[in-house]
Each structure stands twice: as structure tokens, then as C-alpha cells.
Amino acid sequence: MIAYLISVPVMLILSVLQSTAVSRITLLNGSADLILLAVAAWGVRERSYDVFIWALVGGLFIAVITAMPPYLPILSYGFVALLSRLLFGRIWQSPIVMLILTVLLGTLFQNGLSLLVLQISGMDADWMTAVRNFLLPGLLLNFFLCFPMYAVISDLRKWVKPEKHYE
Amino acid sequence: MKPISPSSLRNAVVVFLVIGILFLAISGFLRPILGFIMDPLVTAQRWLSERFMAVYDFFTLPRNVTELIQRNMELEDEVANLQSQIIQLKEQLREAEILYSLLDFARSRPADEYIAAAVIGKDPSPFLQYVIIDHGSDDGVRYGMPVVIQRGLVGRIDAVTASAARVQLITDAGSTVNVTLQNQRADAVISGSITGDISLEMIAQNVPLNEGDILLTSGLGGNYPADILVGQVTDITKTENELFQSADVQPVVDFDSLRAVLIIKNFQITNISPLIPAGAP
């Protein structure tokens, strides 16, 4: 239960950080996504349903801030949660490799879905520009931040679920 | 009469001698002799003193180093505090400069009423060009209100909550603004893009377009007031078989360093959508 409850303040802090600071730190046009990283980092440590709550809470907070359709962040983070659950224990039992793969596929899905939504809503959104200016720089920034985020979320997880033994 | 004793005479001679020597010393007549005697003494004393101080320093230095380290730490703390104060003051100065410039702009357009707001965030999606401001419906901010700074047009209010609002910048892919060329008075449209670049479109082929031409809002469409500075024409694309020429636009506003904005409060937005015929692009 505490794993669910702790997601609210954590995701609130991360959403505020994302909006005030991280979104302004851009490489070309791409930026890191703290919520995505937090969901991925939480999901790769244990096969549980907590991660879906984290994705939902994070998605709801971002949906309040962003001008994108509200379902888009919820779907994106939900996909990351699903991915982490599906991949859990399948890749050499290593959370780090799984984290990198989850972040890679999650960022791809998020950017692809965003672009698709923009194109459907009639905006001039070019795929090549999106890959060059948004996806690749965003991926790079996400990879930079995924390890510190993993460390923070792992510590948080140990505090929330002390009965479990982690390596 | 009692005869003077030899001891008294001796004492009197000694007193006279002392007085004489003192007189000579005060008068400066004994300086060469005193120098001859004192110089080796002073040299010896100096030599001894230097050695003594060296030994004294040797024994007392560790204590002084500790004191110096402590003092250094105190001073470093003080420097850090002063530096943080300087940063805060610079930040306040910068805010004050921004507010003064906004105030100047507001005074230059006395017909308009403004709400000043600080930019507190950016849309988390990198594909969108929106900012969050710290004033909402409680402060009189309403949907569609134009947003400006002293340099020119920023965008318009897209969503409002009680205490905050979201501003769609003119660089956003979903933003179109009717503009006019300041020199030619020819109308055109500027559109944003997902990368934040602005392009000038729908400008007739016969309009002489030059790099550096100033773009102002035209007021057409009823979304923005007229004559607000938007940007400058930079890179013109003119193809013979196209209906319109196009160009890139350099906005006058630096959207990356946007700190505070003015919302035009008394601008009446005109909804012309019922007048647009069905099926029109």
C-alpha cells in the first residue's frame, strides 16, 4: 500500500521538476523525461503491479500540465510499465540492461505516439526532423539520467519495502 | 669651618662627572663613542632575536596553522554566503530590470490594461511550445488573452486554472498569427513548428519581400491586437510556380529566456468562426 501512496509525492515532485527545469534543458529539441525514467526504474526491480500505479499517477500529473491530449502521457507511461513487467527477468536477470532497454523502447513509443497525435491533429510534424531533433537527443539525455534515477528509486524502494532483499 | 671630607669630595666629583656625561650625551657629543659601543651590541641582539623568533615560530607554528585553517574555513563560509547573496541580488536586479522594461512597455500603450505574470514552467512535451505562468482566473486571466513582453508578441492564453495558466507561444506548431509587413503593409500569416521555428506564409508573389523586413500583428482574425512587433524576415523562398512566397522569421522575443510576461487584459477576442464558410481550409 505504501508503494502506491509514495508514488503521489514522488511523481508530484518529479512532474514539477520536469516542468520547471528538465524541459528547459534541451539538446537540439529533445529533453529527458523524469517520469518515464522513474516508472522504468521502479518497474525493473520487481515484478509487481505497483509500477502501473506509478505510471498512472505520473501520467495524470503530466496530463494536467501538458497541452498534449491527456491520454497520451498515461498511455506512454503505461506502456513503459507494461514493458518493464514483460521484460522482467528475461534479460540476463540484470536490471540495468533491462532499464536501458525499457528506456529505449519507452522513449521510442512516447515520441512516436506524440508525433502521430500531432499529425492526426493536423500539425506539420516531419518524422525525420522528429528523429533527428527530438528522439535521438531525448534518448541520449534519458540514458544520462537513467542511472542516477535508478539509484534514487532503488533506495526509495528499499525504504518502502524493507522486507525484500535486493542485490 | 669644618673641612670637606675626601668622600664628599669624591661624591661631588662623581655627580659632576655624571651630569657632564649626561649633558654631553644629550648634546650629541657622545654619539660616535656610544655608536662604537652600541652597534656591536645591537647587531648581536638582532642576531639573537632572529634566532629566537625562528625557534619560537617553529614551536608555535602548528597552533597557528590550526587557527589559520579555522579562520580560512570561516572566511570561505563568509565568501560563500556573500556569493549567494550576490547571486540573489543579481537575480533580483534582473527581475527588476525585466519588470521595469515591462512597465515601460505598458506605459507606451496606455489604452491597454495588463496583468504581469512570471513564467514558472514549460510544457513537458518537447514537441509543444507552451509555457506555464503563475497567474490564473483568480487574477482575471481568461482564455485567448494575448500575451506580450516589451519586445513583442509572445502568444496567447490556451488554458486557465485558478492560480496558473498555460500560454501557447507563437513558435508552437499549432499557432498561426496574422501579420503585416511594416513597410509594404501587405498581410501574411506566420506559423510555428514543432522545432520552434517560425515561417512566414501566404504572402503574395508580387509583394517585394526583403530580408530584415519588420513584421507586426495585423489584428485580422480578432485573436491579437494590431501593431505588436513579431519579428524580422530572414530567409526568403520565392518559387515561380508557387502561389505565395514564404520566408523564415526571426522572432524578436527570446523564448528560451522568457522570465515574465504581460497579459493584455482588456482585449476583446472576436470569434469569426461562424463567418468562415464550411469546407474552407
Q: Could you give the count of β-strands of chain B?
A: 12
Under the CATH scheme, the architecture of chain A is Orthogonal Bundle
* Beginning-to-end CA distance, first to last residue of chain A: 23 Å
What is the CA-CA span between the terminal residues of chain B?
150 Å
**What name does the CATH topology of chain A carry?**
Arp2/3 complex 21 kDa subunit ARPC3
Annotated CATH architecture of the largest domain in chain B: Beta Barrel
Give the total of domains of chain B. 2
Shape of chain A: globular
Report low-confidence residues of chain B grouped into runs of 5 or more: none
Biggest β-sheet of chain B: count, sense, barrel?
6 strands, antiparallel, barrel
Largest sheet of chain A: none
- As a percent range, the share of helical residues of chain B equals 25-40%
Rg of chain A, rounded, reads 15 Å
What class, by secondary structure content of chain B?
A: alpha+beta
Order of helices and strands of chain A: HHHHHH
Report the CATH topology name of the largest domain in chain B: Thrombin, subunit H
**CATH hierarchy, class of chain A:** Mainly Alpha
Q: Please give the most extensive interface between any two protein chains, plus how many residues each contributes.
A: A-B, 32 and 23 residues
Distinct helical segment count of chain B: 2
